[in-house]
Amino acid sequence: MNKVLVTGGAGFIGSHVTDLLVEKGHEVVILDNLSSGDKKNINPSSLVTFVEGDVRDEKTVSETFRQHATIDAVVHLAAQSKVGPSLESPQNDLDINIHGTVNVLEGARKHNVSNVVYSSSAAVYGHVEVLPVSEQASAAPLSPYGVSKLAGEEYVKAYGRLYDLNVSVLRFANVFGPRQSAATEAGVITIFIEQLIEGTQPTIQGDGKQTRDFVYVKDVVRAVVDCLEKTDKIASPNPVYNVSTETMTSVEELLKQLCSAVGENFDPLYVEERKGDIKHSYLSYSKLSEEFDWAPETKLEEGLVNTVEYYRSLT
Ligand SMILES: NC(=O)c1ccc[n+]([C@@H]2O[C@H](COP(=O)([O-])OP(=O)(O)OC[C@H]3O[C@@H](n4cnc5c(N)ncnc54)[C@H](O)[C@@H]3O)[C@@H](O)[C@H]2O)c1
How far is the CA of 260 from the centre of ligand 1 (A)? Predict the structure, then answer.
C-alpha cells in the first residue's frame, strides 16, 4: 500500500487504525469533519495528513483523492454512529452514513483505489434468536442507524461487484477502549467510567440483564489492517466479517468489573430502556479466524483497566 485514506480518522476507532498503519510504516490521509472526533486523537507522525472536511460534500471527497493521488486503500469509518440520534433525525443519519459512503466509494472508483474496508455494525442484525450471531443471519435492523449501516454495506458490496475494487465489510460488536467518546454507540463503558471517577451514581438503562459483546479497540484495528494487507487470504469476493469476542457480558456484570478496575463500589440507578436497543448481542468471529487467523487478544478485564487508566490520565 502507498497511502491509506481513513475517513473518521480523528474519531475513536479511526485514530487507533491510523496509529497501527503508521506503526507499520504506511502513509495516512485523514478526512474528518471533527463533529465527534478530536484533533488531539490524531497521530502526530509526519506520515499523517489531516484534511478537515465532510464526507457528505462530494467536492471535498473528490478533491481529497485528487490532491493525494497515491491513495490506494480506504478505511471508511466516518459516520453518525449512535442509535439515539438516528431515531431523532433519521434524515441526518441517512445523509452522513449513506450519502457519505457513496461519495467515498465514487472517489475510490474514480481514483483507482484497490481496496476499501467499510465499518459496519452488529446493529444491522436486530434481534437474532440463534446465538452467537453468524454473518449468515438475516439482517433486520431495529434503528435507522442499523438501516443506514446496512445500506452502506450493500453499496460497498455492489461497488465490489461492479468495479475493480476489493471490498471488505466489518461488522463490529461493541468496541471499547481509550479515546471513545461517552456519546458513541458503545459508549456505556466510557459513561460508567466517567460516572465512577466523578463519584456519581451509575445509571443502567433497562434491567441490566441485556448483554453485549465488548471487543477491545486494538483487536478491532488488527482486523481492519488484516483486510488491507492480507487480501490473498480472503476466501470469497466482497466478504462480510463479524469482529467480536463471541462472549456475552451483561451490563450489570460490566459495571461490576468496572467498579473493581476503578476501585469504587456503587449501586446503579435503573432507568427506562432505550428504544431501538438490541436485548442480546453476541457475534461469532469464526469467519475472520478461519481466513485471517484472527482472534481477540485482549481480555475484557485487561481492556477495562487500560481504558480506566486512560480516562484517569485525563483528569
Ligand atoms: N464504537 C463502536 O462500538 C462501533 C460499533 C459498530 C460500528 N461502529 C462504526 O465504526 C465507525 C467509527 O465509529 P467510532 O466509534 O470511532 O465513532 P466516532 O464518532 O468516534 O468516529 C467517527 C468519526 O467520523 C467523523 N465524522 C462524522 N461525520 C462525519 C462527516 N459527515 N464527514 C467527515 N467525518 C465525519 C467524526 O468527527 C469522528 O471523528 C463508525 O462507522 C461506526 O458506525 C462503531
Answer: 29
With a 6 A CB cut-off, is 15 part of the ligand 1 pocket? no
User: What CATH number does residue 254 fall under?
Assistant: 3.90.25.10
Structural domains in the chain (count): 2
Strand partners for 175: 215
d(CA 92, CA 207): 30
Contact between 264 and 223 under an 8 Å Cβ cutoff? The reply is no
- 111 and 84 in one domain? yes
The number of angstroms, rounded, from the C-alpha of 291 to the middle of its chain's C-alpha atoms is: 20
| pLDDT over 80 (residue 186) | no
Q: How far apart are CA 33 and CA 82, in angstroms?
A: 16
- From CA 217, how far away is CA 302, in angstroms rounded? 12
In this predicted structure, the answer to whether residue 21 has a pLDDT above a threshold of 80 is yes
pTM of this prediction exceeds 0.70: yes
**Which CA distances in Å does 308 have to 9, 32, 107, 213, 270?**
22, 26, 39, 19, 23
More confident residue, 153 or 198: 153
Give the integer Cα–Cα distance in Å for 52 and 299. 35
- Which residues participate in catalysis according to the annotation? 145
User: For residues 169 and 237, what is the distance between their CA atoms, to the nearest angstrom?
Assistant: 11
